[in-house]
Amino acid sequence: MPSIISESDALRTKLTALSKRLTGDDADTLSQLLDKWESLNDSTTATANSDPVQSAPVVKYATVKITFLRQFMQDALIAAGVPHNEASVAAEVLEWADVHGVSTHGIGRLKPIYINRINDNILKPTAPFDIVSETETTAVVDGHCGLGLFIGPKCMDMCIEKAKKQGLAMVVVRNSTHYGAAGYYVDKAQQRGCIGITGTNARPSIAPTFGVQPMLGTNPMTFGMPSDDDFPFILDCATSVNQRGKIEKYAREGKPTPPGQVVDRDGNVRTDTVQILKDLQTGYCSLAPLGGVGAEMGGYKGYGYATVVELLSAALQDGLNSPKLGGVNKETGEKMPMPLGHFFIAIDVERFLPIERFRSNVGTFLREMRNSEKDPKGPGRIYTAGELEHEGVLECKKLGGVQVPEALMNDMCAIRELYPSILEKYPKFSFEE
Questions:
Q1: 3-class DSSP assignment, residue 104
Q2: I need a labelling partner for 89 at 20 to 30 A (CA). Which of 138, 176, 186, 367 fits?
Q3: Which secondary-structure segment (H or E) carries 409?
Q4: Within 13 A of 228's CA, how many CA atoms are on the CB side?
Q5: 350-357 contacts, C-beta under 8 A, 24 or more apart
């Protein structure tokens, strides 16, 4: 099916280009046909069970209790050699993502990003946590390519404690690894009455505006603030128009990548998801920055923000920047560690005004935003940052667990076969009954 989808997208692109070269009645006729095509696609989208592409396969899901999922993730990491305490913290980060509906950074990352990399010796299950330098408000940490899911929380906790004592603080780390959903860290900060900010670099995926070579990571820039709403303000965005985890999710669900998000070295916009993932690995494809390809829709802004995160994640801690984080030795093809950098900032709200006043100020404005005039052609609702994640939490409670797609069920079964201790403890999963 993916080949059919990509051929359809390619034909649509060619017809669109042709319509721009035609004039008069011919151009109008072709434009009307394209509009009709889009309208038919939209109508099939509305009736599809789980996929916006009619020809894509139906994906099977199973509801897995979150307590079970967290315990399984912790046990799997322990089986891979991660110490118990560190595995517990890591499982909490992954659980946060799944519970909040950030499915690209939960159980879906356990095997490919953590278990496989430990087994490939490019992520160390045990490593020193070295404080290279420290003041009352700052710290530089070296993670020695240990588990980012433990290094990140420890750095954020250190940052929050410094901020509560001194008003504000910043902790940076070099030689870490993938630290999971960035929203988890700013959520920790806002729960302690702080404004939280974090960012991380990543393996090169984004091409700079007017370029086609991947030079920047998806480099999220993330903010969190307490509010008197039922949920905090949490903005967790990659600085690419999309991120690799979402494309991996498209692949698991058999979906094409929407046009305008990926460009290859020949300047072609790509939609063939499975091949895109392969070409991202080799550097033949790049993600577009926020705003998309070129400057017309403001792609240079996303490119600029990605660069800011890169500098705060690499230059400040004297670490490696994204072009050096490919993860593969170009000469031998051997897999290599990707020593990432992160930064964490915490600001104690009470140093400026009473926390309840701040919560009210934040909540009042966000409610005004949500209650502002709606687009009559839109969904009839305006969201503010953190609201969808809150709905994810409510949905998780309603279902009694997390919806796990078939591909991740297979991952869980594969992990079970890797380790005798996991096989012994989990001889049969609930979704296998």
A1: helix
A2: 138
A3: helix 406-418
A4: 13
A5: 350/193, 351/167, 351/168, 355/193, 355/226, 356/228
What are the tokens at 301? 């802004």
Scanning 100-206, the segments in alpha helix (DSSP H) are 107-109, 116-119, 148-166, 183-191
Residues in the chain: 433
**Residue 28 above 70 pLDDT?**
no
CATH 3.30.1370.60 fits 129-241+288-360, yes or no: yes
pLDDT for 47: 36
Alpha-helical runs (H) found in 263-405: 273-282, 299-310, 355-370, 387-399
Whether the predicted pLDDT of 56 surpasses 80: no
Span 334-372, pLDDT tens digits: 888 899 999 999 999 999 999 999 999 999 999 999 999
Element (H, E) at 199: strand 194-200
Find out whether 57 and 1 touch, Cβ atoms under 8 Å.
yes
* H/E segment holding residue 223: strand 221-225
d(CA 297, CA 288): 11
Residue 98 has pLDDT above 90, yes or no: yes
What is Dmax (Cα atoms) for the chain?
72
Report residue 226 CA to chain centroid gap.
Answer: 22
Please compute the mean of the pLDDT values over residues 19-46 and round it to a whole number.
44
Contact 306, 219 (CB under 8 A): yes
Amino acid in the structure at residue 350:
E
CB 220 within 8 A of CB 200: yes
Rounded distance between C-alpha atoms, residue 6 and residue 9, angstroms: 5
**pLDDT over 80 (residue 179):** yes
pLDDT in tens, 241-286: 988 878 988 998 899 999 889 999 999 999 999 999 999 888 899 9
H or E stretch covering 85? helix 84-99
Residue type, 275: Q
